[in-house]
Write a structure and sequence with these properties.
There is one protein chain. This protein has 820 residues and is α/β, with parallel strands linked by helices. It has two domains: 95-515, P-loop containing nucleotide triphosphate hydrolases (Rossmann fold), CATH 3.40.50; 529-741 and 767-817, no CATH class. Helices cover 43% and strands 11% of the residues. Helix 2 packs parallel to helix 10 (355-372), helix 21 crosses helix 22 and helix 25 (717-730) runs antiparallel to helix 26. It has 27 helices and 13 strands. A six-stranded mixed β-sheet has the order 7-8-9-4-10-11, with helices on both faces. 44% of the residues are buried. It is elongated, with a radius of gyration of 34 Å.
């Protein structure tokens, strides 16, 4: 039975006294201040009002009039953010994104005795909850904690086949494929069905919102449409019709024509709003456009998103006050819009915002969709009445299926057809989510069959829905419409980018597409990183201060030791401590690296730049800081410790410390990518440095070390750094640290110190002036005799480069992980 048509709202009429030209794309309530949430008497109809909360009391008719004005401006080309910068992906006519039979499932592990996860999220509700839904059938309902409910909830996974049409699991098995034992605890591998046969469409110039219960597959559906998932089992077809015929969209094409705004709007806190958008334009707009054209494009985006008043304000963060949450979210949207995407995906853009800021964000999305004729698809959770009035199409998910697809105004009629009308004074979307949750708890498996059964007056629609699912279990495997290539034919894993078109000509972009060349990206990223460093004093001033204070403290502790074996041991202790200072202070940058890694994940997800250019720019921008710290450490300690070698030895120590800072920075960067939590990353980096230090050969020499740990000794960068400094100091045969006194037989403890002057030992005699302990002999006693100082320095540099290469591999995997 067909779903009842939603009532069509009458077109709004413009009031005679309304000045249509007054409506702009700046933002409703131009004088609104996000910081103090106040208005300066701005009225929707263009006149100064007395109500400071005019924004909140605006009627839906006012909002409709505003939207109509935006459409009028867009149709007349009065305002376009792409003016002067044509988009390569633009196409004449309206665009339609269509998706059919989208299904998705993953394997999960379940301990014996736990509730089944095959049917998706469980909703533990009290029986009294049903009193709020008197129209819903009550038979067969049990709470989610009851065993029967668990058994029924496993039904969707029971019919899931291994390859979309193969042998199905036994009924009631919940899709169990295997049992594994972990620590004596039996675990079942169960295929959990997240989405089943979801259909829908989104059109250009409109905002389509995806809603559903928590854990119901909203974000999963969004990621599937955006081609950002490669794991699990996917089925279905996604097509884009841009006026030249429908195209089955591949992952490469979707990345080329779309942009994705993540839920976490991670931005550089030390950049202004204009700088953030400008750097995004330089990275994502082709270099054939001049800088002037890019600046004009950014200015238009700022006006479109209502950010003119905060254009020169820093983004800010936890340590620095900046723009408000709503403005920050709009900046994140602007960053993705600079490339003129045909499709804009947004994952919960209103999360964490109050009602007013949420409305402003959605209104900005609406303005962008109208002015740029783009398709906007977003996941939203419990929108307010004002936000709902800006949404053109609502996709309500229930039991992982399409429960309702249409204008929000038709949702109350749909819920009434289920026997649960929206209570007076209630939000229809919130009520719809509650109804879907109750149906989930009742064990409904086919939402469309349930709707048809309710409309047909069937006494037990729940049983009818289960029967319908059993009959049509094979239907979820999509058939390629009109011969087009769908996911069902591509198998599992990452899909080949081989699109088949039903119209137009082949223009599918192959592989990853970047707007700029390698060196162009490097220049922009290096400039941006330099600005960030200069505006983040804690990143370099604090580290310079720590190096200075620590160097002075070491100079006082090891002040001018004597030229004796004891003095030589003191100098070796200083060199070991200096090595530790270099490596440990580099861990202070771990929080900065973690923040940059989050930004890299967001930017690389839309192919803003290559992982290689990011890594090289991040390395280059820190080299001057590393040199300053190396020079400062050497200059303070050289004369205080009476180190030998003259100018050559001084320059070598500066170079050695510089390479040490480079290697330590590489280790800290690598750890920051592997461990996302700041506390855990810092602890991991410190622990790793400590392990390297223990096996460096200072406390336990190489010859004294256990054979089981000798391999760690050769892997330690501390070994090569410490030995390079030690060889630079003691690999000098002209320095003597012990000689025989003129009085033969004097005990060694009473021998006077030898002067640091060349000694001329008498061959075959042990008379006065005979040196018993030279610098090379001291190094041999400490098992520092395998490599020269330059060889140690080269090994240390190679170690740092190897860690950088490992970091590059991790960045590439991180970039690819966005599709999983």
């Amino acid at each position: 039975m067909a779903r009842p048509a939603a009532p069509t709202a009458a077109a709004p009429q413009w009031p005679p006294d309304y000045n249509r030209d007054h409506v702009t794309v700046e933002d409703i309530g131009e004088d609104y201040d996000d910081d103090d949430s106040s208005f300066d008497g701005y009225d929707f109809r263009g006149d100064a009002g007395d109500d400071d909360d005019a924004f909140s009391t605006a009627s839906s008719e006012d909002l409709t009039i505003e939207v109509e004005a935006l459409k009028r401006d867009a149709a007349s080309k009065k305002y376009s953010p792409s003016a002067g910068v044509p988009s390569a992906s633009a196409a004449p006519g309206a665009s339609v994104l269509t998706f059919r039979n989208i299904s998705y499932s993953v394997f999960v592990k379940q301990r014996k005795g736990e509730p089944s996860a095959a049917a998706g999220p469980q909703f533990a509700r009290q029986d009294s909850t049903l009193a709020n839904f008197p129209g819903l059938p009550q038979q067969g309902f049990q709470t989610a904690s009851a065993p029967a409910a668990v058994a029924e909830a496993s039904a969707p996974g029971a019919g899931e086949s291994a390859a979309g049409g193969g042998t199905s699991a036994a009924p009631g098995s919940g899709g169990i494929r295997g049992i594994v034992g972990i620590g004596g605890m039996r675990r079942k591998r169960i295929r959990r069905q997240i989405l089943t046969g979801v259909n829908g469409e989104a059109r250009s110039g409109e905002v389509t919102a995806i809603m559903g219960a928590s854990g119901g597959g909203k974000t999963t559906l969004l990621n599937i449409l955006a081609q950002r998932i490669s794991s699990g089992r996917r089925k279905g077809t996604v097509e884009l019709d841009a006026g030249e015929g429908a195209v089955t969209v591949s992952a490469g094409m979707m990345r080329h024509v779309s942009a994705y705004v993540m839920q976490d709007d991670v931005l550089f806190p030390s950049l202004t709003v204009r700088e953030t958008l400008m750097y995004a334009a330089e990275l994502r707009v082709e270099p054939r456009f001049s800088r002037r054209e890019k600046e004009e494009k950014v200015d238009r985006l700022i006006d479109l998103l209502g950010l003119a008043k905060v254009a020169e304000t820093l983004i800010g963060g936890e340590r620095k006050r900046g723009v408000s949450g709503g403005e920050r979210k709009r900046v994140a949207i602007g960053v993705e819009m600079v490339s003129d995407p045909k499709i804009l995906f947004l994952d919960e853009p209103t999360s964490g915002l109050d009602s007013t800021n949420a409305f402003r964000v959605v209104r900005a999305i609406k303005s962008v969709a109208i002015q740029t004729a783009s398709i906007s698809v977003m996941v939203i959770h419990q929108p307010s009445y004002r936000v709902l009035s800006l949404i053109d199409k609502l996709l309500l998910l229930g039991v992982g299926q399409t429960a309702y697809l249409g204008p929000p105004a038709g949702l109350p009629d749909f819920l009434s057809s289920l026997g649960s009308p929206v209570p007076e004074g209630s939000n229809s979307t919130e009520h719809g989510l509650d109804v879907m949750a109750v149906l989930q708890a009742q064990g409904v498996t086919d939402i469309q069959a349930y709707v048809q059964a309710c409309q047909a007056g069937v006494s037990d629609p729940v049983a009818a829905s289960r029967k319908a699912l059993a009959v049509t279990s094979d239907a979820v495997t999509p058939k390629s419409p009109r011969g087009k290539l769908g996911w069902g034919q591509l198998g599992k894993g990452r899909k080949e980018e081989q699109p088949t078109k039903t119209g137009g000509k082949e223009n599918e972009p192959k592989g990853q597409q970047y707007a700029n060349g390698w060196f162009g990206e490097l220049m922009v990223l290096t400039r941006r990183a330099t600005v960030n460093i200069m505006r983040t004093p804690a990143l370099y001033l604090l580290r310079l201060a720590l190096i200075l204070i620590t160097s002075v403290l070491l100079a006082i502790l090891f002040w001018k030791p004597e030229e004796t074996p004891e003095g030589a041991s003191i100098r070796l202790s200083f060199l070991s401590c200096a090595t530790c200072i270099v490596f440990y202070t580099s861990c202070d940058a771990v929080p900065i690296f973690i923040e940059e890694c989050a930004i890299f994940t967001r930017e690389s997800a839309n192919n803003a730049y290559r992982p290689s250019t990011y890594l090289v720019s991040a390395t280059l921008v820190y080299l001057p800081l590393h040199f300053l710290m190396a020079l400062l450490l050497t200059a303070v300690s050289w004369g205080s410790i009476s180190l030998a070698g003259g100018a050559e030895g001084f320059l070598f120590m500066v170079l050695a410390c510089f390479v040490m800072f480079f290697t330590a920075n590489a280790i800290a960067t690598c750890v920051s990518i592997c461990v996302k939590d700041v506390v855990l990353a810092y602890a991991t980096a410190i622990s790793l440095m400590s392990y390297f230090y223990l096996v460096s050969g200072f406390y336990v020499t190489r010859t004294q070390m256990s054979p089981a740990l000798i391999w760690l000794h050769y892997l330690s960068p501390f070994k090569y750094a410490y030995e390079a400094l030690a060889i630079n100091q003691y690999d000098r045969p002209d320095l003597c640290y012990m000689r025989v006194d003129s009085t033969l037989g004097a005990p060694p403890g009473t021998l006077p110190p030898a002067a640091s002057t060349p000694q001329q030992p008498t061959p075959g005699a042990a008379g006065a002036g005979t040196c018993l302990l030279t610098g090379p002999q001291l190094l041999t006693e400490r098992s520092i005799d395998q490599l020269g100082k330059w060889q140690c320095l080269v090994v240390l540099l190679v170690f740092g480069i190897a860690v950088k290469l490992l970091t590059f591999v991790l960045l590439v995997r991180l970039q690819r992980a966005k599709h999983k």
